[in-house]
């Protein structure tokens, strides 16, 4: 997301797996926002005033993210001022796109740094967790369902360039649309393991829910996507089975389910802006991993899920061995 959003690589996946301060700060921010929902307003307001507990971490995290964002915004503006070929720049990224949006002369652009800071924050958060948990659970599920992996491999062989020289293969949107079974497998994955397992909504006025329950004004409602994705009432008695075929019609096309029952990316005005980007990223990474390696889950490990902050995650990670395909 840093590459797409800011045009630089923070090298979080280097061999040393370094602790990146900004990543830690984003987790602290998420944790504080969740706790604000759980605590009475007066309590977290007091913690904020006293600068203690999660509110202290929130303030520190926001400062770290702000400093990080403004540093790269300033650096990018300086580069654009020195260059008259911003749109032809090989390092073109989303931040550049928003900076140059209002005109071709980068020195006359009017986007405020605060606006750009918000864009940077969106890019850092919008797909970070969804791609992480989506890919982890996807690889876990296909490793434990070899017949699904075999069908995905057949689809990859039919739609990927010949040869397996170890180079990353990229795809256009049209090319990715050919991977119907792969997309169906991802839909099944995020139904069982949504990256955001639940979210809150607040009523503006008194209302009646579809269930018939009445709610008053300013009532906080928790929608559990994790429970909805495992509901027999919605998905049938085989709701827990990993069957990508559920999402494929008799003519081999993807079947769209009602938005009211399938909400891993939200719906309506609150739908996730990064949905398509996240799905494209996950499919591209999955294709490149699966075509090169056979993924085997290490035996006798406990794969447990938790949502310590806003997002679902594997509590102890997922240990696998990768065997290179010949």
Count of folded domains: 2
pLDDT < 50 runs, ≥5 residues: 103-109
Would you identify the CATH H-level superfamily of the largest domain? Cytochrome P450
Tell me about the largest β-sheet. 2 strands, antiparallel
CATH class of the largest domain: Mainly Alpha
- Give the end-to-end Cα distance, rounded to a whole number of Å: 31 Å
Kindly summarize this structure in a few lines:
By secondary structure, this protein is mainly α. 48% of the residues lie in helices and 9% in strands.
Care to describe what's here?
- The protein has 326 residues and is mostly helical.
- It has 2 domains: 2-126, no CATH class; 128-199 and 226-324, Orthogonal Bundle (Cytochrome p450), CATH 1.10.630.10.
- The chain is 48% helix and 9% strand.
- It has 13 helices and 8 strands.
- It has helices at residues 2-5, 21-38, 41-50, 53-82, 94-99, 113-126, 128-143, 146-159, 173-176, 180-192, 225-228, 232-235, 275-292; strands spanning 198-202, 207-208, 214-215, 220-224, 293-297, 305-306, 313-314, 320-324.
- The strands form 4 sheets. The chain has a two-stranded antiparallel sheet. It has a two-stranded antiparallel ribbon with strand order 2-3.
- Strand 2 and strand 3 form a beta hairpin.
- The longest helix is centred in the N-terminal third of the chain and has 30 residues, at 53-82.
- 24% of the residues are buried.
- Residues 103-109 have low confidence and may be disordered.
Highlighted features:
2 domains, heme, 13 helices, 8 strands, globular, Cytochrome p450, 326 residues
């Amino acid at each position: 997301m840093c590459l797409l959003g800011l045009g630089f690589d923070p090298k979080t996946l280097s061999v040393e797996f370094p602790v990146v301060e900004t990543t830690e700060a984003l987790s602290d921010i998420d944790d504080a926002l969740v706790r604000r929902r759980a605590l009475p307003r007066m309590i977290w307001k007091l913690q904020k005033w006293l600068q203690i507990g999660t509110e202290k971490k929130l303030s520190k995290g926001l400062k770290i993210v702000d400093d990080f964002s403004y540093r790269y915004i300033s650096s990018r503006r300086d580069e654009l001022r020195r260059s008259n070929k911003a749109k032809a720049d090989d390092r073109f990224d989303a931040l550049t796109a928003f900076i140059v949006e209002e005109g071709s002369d980068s020195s006359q652009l009017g986007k405020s740094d605060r606006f750009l800071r918000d864009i940077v924050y969106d890019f850092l958060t919008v797909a970070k967790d969804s791609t992480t948990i989506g890919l982890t659970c996807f690889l876990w599920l296909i490793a434990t369902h070899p017949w699904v992996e075999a069908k995905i491999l057949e689809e990859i062989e039919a739609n990927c360039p010949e040869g397996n020289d170890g180079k990353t293969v990229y795809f256009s949107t049209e090319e990715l649309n050919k991977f119907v079974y792969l997309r169906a497998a991802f839909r099944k994955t995020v139904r069982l393991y949504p990256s955001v397992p639940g979210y809150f909504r607040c009523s503006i006025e008194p209302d009646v829910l579809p269930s018939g329950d009445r709610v008053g004004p300013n009532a906080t409602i928790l929608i559990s996507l994790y429970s909805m994705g495992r509901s027999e009432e919605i998905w049938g008695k085989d709701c827990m089975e990993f069957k990508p075929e559920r999402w494929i019609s008799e003519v081999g096309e993807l079947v769209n389910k009602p938005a009211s029952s399938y909400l891993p990316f939200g719906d309506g005005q609150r739908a996730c802006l990064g949905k398509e980007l996240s799905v494209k990223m996950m499919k591209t990474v999955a294709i490149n991993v699966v075509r090169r390696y056979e993924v085997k889950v290490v035996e006798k490990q406990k794969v447990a899920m938790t949502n310590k902050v806003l997002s679902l995650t594997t509590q102890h990670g997922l240990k696998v061995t990768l065997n290179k395909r010949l």
